[in-house]
Amino acid sequence: MSERPVPRRESPWGMPEGDHRQPKPHRCNDRAEDVIQACFEGNPFKTVPGPFKLFWQCMRSKPGEEPTEPFYYLEFEPPQREVKLE
């Protein structure tokens, strides 16, 4: 997952005192963007199934077990699994 900043909206009520939390993108956000990009890359019946399959696998997986296959249309590095040394 790429660590791109998430835009923050201004609230008419302002920020609570001491609340410095920042929004984080969902772990499958890049997979969803890959599906959306596939919709505009020709015949959607041919371009969407591959990215959607990886997006669905990502949504059904546990955190840290996301698919590591490369993206179809985005120019990002595929997600890497953390290797735990025991």
From TrEMBL:
This is Uncharacterized protein. PANTHER family: UNNAMED PRODUCT. Residues 1-28 are annotated as: Disordered.
